[in-house]
Amino acid sequence: MPQPLAVFLDQHCIECHDADVKKGGLDLTALTFELKGKANLERWVQVHDKVRDGEMPPAKKPQPEQAEKGAFIAALKEPLIKADAADIAANGRVRSRRLTRTEYEHTLHDLLGIDIPLKILLPEDRASHGFETVADGQQLSHHQLAAYLDAADLALSEAFKRAVDGDESFQRYHTPQELAKSRRGNYRGPELREGKSITWPITLQFFGRTPTQVPQSGWYRITLREVEAINPGTDGAVWGTLRSGECESNAPMLYMIGLVEATSTPRDMVYEAWIQKGHQLEMKPNDGTLKRAPTGAKGGNVSFAGRDLAKQGFSGIAHRGIDMERIHPNADRFTVKKKLFGETGLEAVKTENVEKLVTRFATRAFRRPVTDEQAAPYREIARKSLTGGDSPTEALRAAYRAILCSPRFLTFIEAPGLLDDHAIASRLSYALWCSMPDFTLTKLANENKLHEPEVLAQQVERLLTDSKSKRFIHSFTDQWLKLNQIDFTTPDTRQFRDFDPAVQESMLQETRAYVTEMLRSDLNITHLVDSDFVFLNGRLARHYRADLELKPGEGLQKVALKPQDIRGGLVTQGAILKVTADGTSTSPVVRGVFINERILGNHIPPPPPGVPAIEPDIRGATSIRDQLDKHRNNESCASCHQTIDPPGFAHENYDPVGVWRTSYGQGNKGAKVNPTGTTPEGDAFTDLSSWKQIYTKRADQLARGFAQQFLTYSTGAPLRFSNVTTLNEITSKATGMRSLLREAVLSDIFRTK
Fold first, then answer.
1. Cβ–Cβ contacts within 10 Å for residue 394, how many?
2. Could you tell me which residue, 413 or 3, shows the higher pLDDT?
3. How many CB atoms lie within 10 A of CB 187?
4. Of 360, 373, 338, 427, which Cα lies nearest the Cα of 753?
């Protein structure tokens, strides 16, 4: 160990980190300065970061002079960067990683032209460093391989069936009279009145179900004809949900299709959704603020005889029937045949060209040219199939099945060092489309042009402009912002009676629309913490108690905020606030960790062993801040909590469903919320507004945090110590979200294994 480092550690660290005391499990006397081993390197990086960030020595201990501290950090930083860079050059930063469930499904959809759900057949992906794409958290067991094989069989069956036999068609118009027909069992369908089908806010399970069972699982275009509101609310609409399911107590699962915003002006509303065979539609008002209508009957039945719910003041949704049509949103039959059999189509598939088609398919599936040696095993499978008496199409299917289970298809082929053009094409395409490269990317890779900065930048813009970038918005926000966990908790219905499925679906739409706008308009990254606009619909505006001008029937709308409004920024949106709460209470720790790691770019280590969790008082009689103050007195907790707690405190005025409050407990009758605090850098804030003001001046920090999140997601590994310089270069060139993403792709971090 260099002498200056040994002297500093001896004076300021050894007392608490020797063989006897060993605080935090760290014994510096036994930690050698051998940096070739990954474990040792990571330990020394931890020492560097703790001293740099002022967490060590602890505040209660004597502090080193700034010059002394600076000299120590500089002396330690240089050998750490050198050792880390050498390890990346030799072994790569990213371990070999496989396709996630989402990537696998999109890839087979694009490769074969099919549209059936596949990821539900595969084991769930485990997130590491916040993302399912990170290789360190992935596994590839025999169980998973068997699941991939089943999914491949199903995908190929669908593709060959459509190519050989043609597409099944289905089209039917369900009249209001048909929708209101009684059937065996309890009636829970709509009311038929004046030629209209009407549903009311009746809370009976599966109320609003209709005899609209589909004959086959598939994608359907659903048109609600002349949808109209009865007794609309203050926002000019009656809000409901359209869902599908068996709608029976033995199969209670319902699948969201979309929101229904009925207004006084009748209009058709069109949806597209995957519906399982035998499932039917359920449509009803699903607004927690509406006055509940009685069932009018006993024993789980609904009856409308002898009453007029409209005249009684109840709100409802009326329409004049439902059109249902089978569709194939991803590709028509001609395109499926072309993907399977080439330009010549099914009619030209002969024994003599089977091997050529196998090589063609392998090239597309493996996302790079294949050698004769690599294609040989699959051609041999086709030959054996033909020899055994199978038809050319059966031989192709057998070979394609093996290709779809190959490691060259299921994993990313990347060698240490700078990626070749085909690896760049795959990394870029999976980053921004969650799927395989298209013809343009493949052509540029074949021409060895994709690594050129100008060409690569153009492709980033092309991919982001394409409609497939919606996949990126969904996948990235699901993982980065934990939107995929929005169903993990159910708000306590006694405390949050107004929370409903329409609100939750609107929250998801709000956040995805906001991120889409940031990317489309290249908005400054400070919009993560504050903005002068929001995306709201009428139902969400009422939930937030926001007094903003919205047009009924327009769905989600971009609206300007007034200076005194408490919204603005990604971190004040309901979806974020809900996934960082537990359904009954909030915790500054949970929200603080989320904002630090996902927005501010601060890594928060797990708590030390044996430290009890903070249990909020759900009655609201005691402030959680008081409980945290006791927790922070623990020296091993204090250093982390000075970073964790401030953003959590700043957002405590939002309850578990994102509504503003001034006190805890039901009805805001408990302890007062105290949103004050001090950032780790010593900047004091009195409320959320002043906290925002601090961080809108720190665009560089927010930019580093976002770039780090995107690079972790898109490359499959967290950034390393030696990547910091490149990360700073990225953020020095851009502060807009789209520009940051482009500069991240152009960086050596993205273009290196």
1. 15
2. 413
3. 19
4. 427
- Cα 85 from Cα 719, distance rounded (Å): 12
Question: Pairing state of beta strands 237-245 and 280-285?
Answer: antiparallel
Least confident of 46-60, 288-302, 541-555: 46-60
**Whole-angstrom distance, CA of residue 539 vs CA of residue 556:** 10
Residue 717's SS3 state is coil
pLDDT at residue 40, rounded to an integer: 86
Residues 244, 101: Cα–Cα separation, whole Å: 23
Query: What SS3 class is residue 593?
Result: helix
Per-residue pLDDT, averaged over 123-128, amounts to 94
Q: What is the largest CA-CA distance in the chain?
A: 94
For residues 390 and 396, give the distance between their C-alpha atoms in angstroms, rounded to a whole number. Answer: 10
Comparing CA positions, the residue from 49, 58, 48 lying closest to residue 23 is 58
Alpha carbon of residue 154 to chain centroid:
26
Q: How far apart are CA 444 and CA 427, in angstroms?
A: 14
Neighbours of 303 (CB within 10 A): 13
- Read out DSSP for 496-516? -TT--HHHHHHHHHHHHHHHH
- The alpha carbon dihedral of 391, 396, 397, 399 has a sign of positive
Residues 51, 11: Cα–Cα separation, whole Å: 13
Q: Could you report the per-residue pLDDT of 284-325, keeping only the tens digit for each?
A: 999 999 999 999 998 888 999 999 999 999 999 999 999 999
Pairing label, strands 322-327, 196-199: unpaired
Q: What is the pLDDT of residues 654-679, one digit of tens each?
A: 999 999 999 988 777 788 999 999 99
Would you say the pTM of this structure is higher than 0.90? yes
- The DSSP call for residue 281 is E
Dihedrals φ, ψ of 592, to 5°? -65, -45
Contact 349, 392 (CB under 8 A): yes
Bigger pLDDT: 282 vs 495: 282
Which one-letter DSSP state was computed for residue 353? G
Q: How far apart are the first and last CA of the chain?
A: 30
In the predicted model, what is the mean pLDDT of the chain?
92
DSSP, collapsed to helix, strand or coil, labels residue 557 as: strand
Angle (nearest 5°) at CA 104 between 101 and 107: 150
